Amino acid sequence: MDLALLTFVTGLATAGLAFAFGFPQFFRVRRTGSAEGVSLASVTNSLVSTTAWLMYGFSLRDVWVITTSLVGLPAIIATIHVVRRAKDEHDGMWVPLLYTGLLALAAMLIPVLPWLFPAVLGCSILWFVTPAALTAWRSADISGLATGTWWLLVVDGLVAGAYGLLAGVGAYLVYAAIALVGSAVVLARLHWPWEPACGECAPVPGCTC
User: Do the beta carbons of residue 122 and residue 69 sit within 8 Å?
Assistant: First the structure.
């Protein structure tokens, strides 16, 4: 398989994964009516990130970065809507505002520090996985979390890393590394078997019934 074809295949796979990524969480909240263990700040950060990736794709004139961003937006917006309706508390919503400000600052500094915006954008997945992981490990009830979302993120990290290597998109390599580590942390919580029998204690900070 030549390089152009391999780049096309990995780009197409990245776009497909981006389209599918938000739907497991959306359908789980819609089906169960529960958003317990789900961080609204996390999914809002994913909207900020995807919008920034879209602008970055236009600056690179990279059709697959643009396509991946566009196809990922509908599920993210739908997920934000259902999570907002299902959750009474919307803690941590200052985080998306902070993240937006950091991206805007990095964009303004492009003439002086051209490497900064790709670096900040590559770390964008941190703003999704960090609130999600903290909420999951600090929550006794994680019934609202969709396991499929995090397995998709594992696959997405692997494919994005491959595309980053083939197409020379350095931000994708940073994204891939963080996505793989972050998804492993959340999946570990989803498969955490040592909860107290009362079911009222989170692993962090932990408690006794």
Answer: no
Q: Quote the tokens at residue 185.
A: 């942390």
Token pair, residue 111, equals 């003439």
CA-to-CA dists, residue 57 to 28, 64, 66, 159, 172, angstroms: 31, 8, 5, 17, 11
For 105, the enclosing helix (H) or strand (E) is helix 94-108
Closest by Cα among 145, 116, 132, 15 to 74: 15
Q: What angle do CA 182, 20, 146 make, to 5 degrees?
A: 55
What single-letter amino acid sits at 98? L
**Rounded Cα–Cα distance for residues 151 and 146 (Å):** 9
Per-residue pLDDT tens listing for the chain (209 residues): 566 777 788 888 888 888 888 888 889 888 888 888 888 888 898 899 999 989 988 988 889 889 999 999 999 999 999 998 887 777 788 889 999 999 999 999 999 998 888 888 888 888 888 888 998 898 888 888 889 889 999 998 998 888 888 888 877 888 899 999 999 999 999 888 666 666 677 878 766 66
CA dihedral in degrees (52, 118, 101, 83; nearest 10)? 50
Which letter does DSSP use for residue 205 in this model? T
**What is the Cβ-side half-sphere exposure of residue 66, based on CA atoms within 13 angstroms?**
7
The answer to whether residues 181 and 204 touch, using CB atoms and an 8 Å cutoff, is: no
The letter for the amino acid at 96 is P
